[in-house]
């Protein structure tokens, strides 16, 4: 395992697209620290800073940064397809990696990136919470902090889907287009078509499940509930309709697991020459 | 002697093309084994299968007497086809990745880069190398950790004459150190220079295999003539010098008896008062045999 991590780090730390995308991601997340308070000053009627108070900051930040995970997904696609383009999967097998290890090394990388993304987002949210809350107690600050766990799962899912697109399509440009097209166009279109039909299976689409891990909080309620301190309400009441949280999490885990399973299967049969 | 690689009835097809047909080989420790054949004879396919990057349709192979596993490949230095590395990484970092895969420390990197004359370029990105340098880096990677077994697929491909000579020298050195070498080549002289054993392949078929010395004709063939060829033939036919004699284009083509040299032949006829005006060695090289084998095969097919 340590060996696979070291190999991946040598590869990505010197890979220009990775360097660019990871900096973009870091800037995009941490810029919130600077930008959100500035916006607040320009809108006098509603105080946006309500969103950055504990415990709402956890739900709001995970929701608003959820699309940033696309960047991580694209990153994983590029890292995977570049191995096909350069035939380096083949080289690694020749020198003694097993085909399973080719997938494992990418999964290890994905987990590391998801941990990194979650920590970055967590620290940003914490700083926002600390600077915006009137009253801070440990209990209030830690309420809803489980959203970070859901963010981790969300981030993981985005990248696992990216890996799968890269493995199937192999070509960098086509994989990127396929992934973006599926995430931003194809699934939302299907969702719109099936919305409010009798069978509500549109909520079961993989990307929908992924995005629903960190859903839009009920903003009205947050703005109305100005009193700081625990909202006293169940976190679920803050979210609009859809599948129950436990089912969303379960589905995300099941989908991710299936994709990992098929990735290993795919690699076992893939021609590397 | 210890068997390093055992190949049993290996077969592989690409759609309708049979790349390797029922190939069986036994390669023992310390042998320098050449896979010789024209392009498309199944050399690279065979090496790709034993390197784990291609699945065979039938048959099996065993490295070190055990069923194949990824772990075994860490004990082997391989170069299959053109070497592929990360174009955006420098040579050192590329070799570090190989070291990690092979569970080695980085200590050996300077040595292999020096041996392949790439040390000065160690900080250059792989993509900036010339074709010959890339090939040399492939060899450097194969030499990492000083493995006892080397698998090289046309290692002199893409090199200039100087580079070819250097790489051959390097490979011969490895053989002299007692390493087991499996090398594919379509250049006969290369196999003759490097290998102790050879398997000749054509369109996936094994035409012949054995030691290079065996496959090299041990009889020496000489072409002679003088002003009286009839007299020459009479003298030679009864002599102990010759095992076979034929007339060809007004000259005599003779197979020297074992252990006899061309000098001895010359002295013998001179002592019988004949001065040769033509004496040329037609040593039947492996090349001629190779071409003959390949040609025979074609004839059979045509018939």
Structural description of this entry:
The complex is a heterodimer of chains A (273) and B (303). Chain A is mostly helical and 273 residues long. In chain A, 71% of the residues lie in helices and 0% in strands. Chain A contains twelve helices and no strands. In chain A, helix 2 packs antiparallel against helix 4, helix 6 packs antiparallel against helix 12 and helix 8 packs parallel to helix 12. The longest helix of chain A has 34 residues. Chain A is globular, with a radius of gyration of 20 Å. With 303 residues, chain B is of the alpha/beta class. Helices cover 35% and strands 29% of the residues of chain B. Chain B has a six-stranded mixed β-sheet with strand order 6-7-8-3-9-10, with helices on both faces. A four-stranded antiparallel β-sheet of chain B has the order 2-1-4-5, with helices on one face. Chain B has a four-stranded antiparallel β-sheet with strand order 12-13-11-14, covered by helices on one side. Chain B starts with a strand and ends with a helix. In chain B, 38% of the residues are buried. The model of chain B has no long low-confidence stretch (mean pLDDT 87). Chains A and B meet through helix 1 and helix 5 of A and helix 2 and helix 3 of B.
Q: Name the biggest interface.
A: A-B, 25 and 31 residues
Described by its quaternary structure, the protein is heterodimer
Low-confidence stretches of chain B: none
Taking strands numbered 1, 2, ... along the chain, how are they ordered across the largest sheet of chain B?
6-7-8-3-9-10
The fraction of residues assigned to DSSP E strands of chain B is 25-35%
Beta-strand fraction estimate of chain A: under 5%
Order of helices and strands of chain A: HHHHHHHHHHHH
